Amino acid sequence: MSSNIQFEVTAPGKIILFGEHSVVYGKPAIACAIDQHTTLTFTESYCNNQDLNTIPCRVILPLINYSGMLTIHLDAKSTFSPTTYFQETLNKLNKNEPFLNELDTLSGNEKKTLTVLHFIFGGILSCYMKQLKNVSFTIGITSVLKLGAGTGSSASYCVSLVAACLAYVKFKINSNVEIQFDPLLDDFHSQSGDNLLIIEAFTDNISFSDGEKCLINRWALLAENFIHTKASGLDNTICTYGTMVQYTKLNSHKLLEAPELKILLIYSGIERSTGNVVQSVRTKYNDDTYQPILDAIFNSIGQIVNSAVNAIDQMAQNPLQELQQISVLQTLMDMNQGLLMSLGVSHETLDAIVAILKKFDLHAKLTGAGMGGYAICLVPPNVHKSKIQTCMQELKMYGFESNICTIGCPGVRIQTK
Fold first, then answer.
1. For a tag on the chain, would you pick the N or C end, based on fewer CB atoms within 10 A?
2. Where are the alpha helices (H) located in 195-251, listed in sequence order?
3. What does the CA dihedral 77, 83, 86, 88 come to, rounded to 10 degrees?
């Protein structure tokens, strides 16, 4: 068995800087890519497989302690709809119907995680490559992102898989591939506003075009729905594009030009379900007694986001104002945290973290769903390292793990091995 195509894909994690929960109700939020990544290594090998519609794949996933084979099935239909394929796969998963491969021996998180991989590789290769002969894959995935902690671990996983599969297509084709589709029949690709998709062969520039990043983002959003049922699209967008994104529901986003900033990322040690926390807020919102109050809170958070966008824009336009605008952002973080506490989504550990940081004149808030997970704190460039180290030591004394991260870093990337 001789080795052929080899490469590595990295996709960042994310934090929400402002706008948690209110984004679910149509208000804007700001998300940032962080320099903590999911890393996928891909190796193609030649093998003796004569079946044009299956690909043997070895998967190494320390995240879920899985190492084994997974047979990728390709869809031989002449017309292929990603959304129909998603619904068919979801029905199989929910109804425990047979996949006719190794997935049928798995259950729980293992099965869901490997179903995402099978969906992405089976779907993209069926859609853009159709048949592959005498090849097998080895896919290894590692990540420094904690699961279920609000740093976009599942979106980073999905984006890295989609990017790897699309990269494989780009390596295999000899020239650009033009794919025509009917916008009336294909609601997935028609989101691009055109009836022609162009996948470009890799040349000297090993990167993704803007159109391909859009494609990665849409496939990743579909895949995220296996994990979160009704994903907002925020996490996969920031993991795809990186930097900072102003996001509103229905997958509308605006990339923000901003300098890379430092934050303290502090783990509360409390695991929680994003879906359960979101539902707890929804339950209050559905009560007529609380709904007007929550609307006012969401409107206020929306105003905080708009003010934060203005501060970030000011930093981009005039770097000399960076310290002044960071001070504005710190005040807005205090306000946002107070409103999130009023929603009931903070936690005593998060409140303790905020109080510890306040002793050092630092400003913190929860990030993500809350009720656990992470808190974040902006670190202005004029704060001495020794002060941050002392703060981190005190956090550690109380049992809180913390580390310094960069926000606003690049999105999904690929490099050859």
1. N
2. 210-228, 234-241
3. -60
